[in-house]
């Protein structure tokens, strides 16, 4: 999925359990999985473009377990070499550049499609709010195996990824105008205080302040 954002000083990026390939300040950068909110040091009106990597692709395509990229923003060339990361002449459309680079890396890596399908299945189930134990059972995996799969594919233990996904669901509800007390119930928190603690843990701000920012 291609995305673009116009950032500015203090632009807040929340953990989302994903890895992105970015074109930022004329460089290809890999945004590793975050464990906390990141404040981007951007100029007013600065544009950042990114391509969301499929679940598990960072390990299968870039050859680096996601757990090694947690809370980092390395240049792509440092992971795959300058030749493989060479974007060539930048086209007018940055999205085309990102897609071309990813396709080249994909062909070079010949990824394990079964591993990618498993990572996608884990992601779908956790994003839907399925308990970790139920995810493991449903996929026929021991909990230890699920833990290893999640660390390699997402950089997070499955319990942490589930918490991040739940915060995402809660914030989606809150942005639609759902009262926070109702958000807490619908997203599966014990109460509103539990919701506030979890949002603050990952976003760096309590829900009301975050929604106003």
From TrEMBL:
Keywords: DNA-binding, Transcription, Transcription regulation. Residues 116-213 form the HTH araC/xylS-type domain. The keyword Transcription regulation applies. GO terms for molecular function: DNA-binding transcription factor activity; sequence-specific DNA binding. Gene3D superfamilies: Homeodomain-like. This is Transcriptional regulator, AraC family. It comes from Geodermatophilus amargosae. It comes from the Bacteria.
């Amino acid at each position: 999925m291609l995305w673009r954002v116009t950032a500015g000083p203090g632009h807040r990026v929340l953990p989302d359990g994903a890895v992105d390939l970015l074109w930022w300040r004329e460089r290809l950068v890999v945004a590793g999985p975050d464990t906390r909110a990141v404040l981007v040091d951007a100029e007013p009106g600065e544009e950042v473009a990114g391509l969301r990597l499929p679940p598990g692709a960072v390990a299968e395509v870039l050859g680096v377990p996601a757990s090694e990229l947690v809370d980092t923003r390395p240049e792509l060339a440092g992971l795959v070499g300058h030749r493989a990361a060479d974007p060539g002449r930048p086209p007018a459309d940055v999205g085309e550049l990102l897609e071309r680079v990813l396709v080249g890396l994909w062909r070079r890596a010949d990824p394990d499609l079964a591993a990618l399908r498993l990572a996608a299945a884990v992601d779908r189930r956790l994003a839907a709010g399925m308990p970790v134990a139920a995810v493991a059972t449903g996929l026929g995996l021991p909990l230890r195996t699920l833990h290893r799969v999640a660390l390699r594919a997402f950089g997070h233990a499955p319990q942490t990824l589930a918490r991040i996904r739940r915060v995402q669901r809660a914030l989606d509800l809150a942005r639609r105008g759902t009262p926070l007390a109702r958000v807490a119930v619908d997203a599966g928190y014990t109460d509103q205080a539990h919701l506030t603690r979890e949002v603050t843990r990952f976003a760096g701000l309590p829900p009301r302040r975050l929604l106003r920012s």
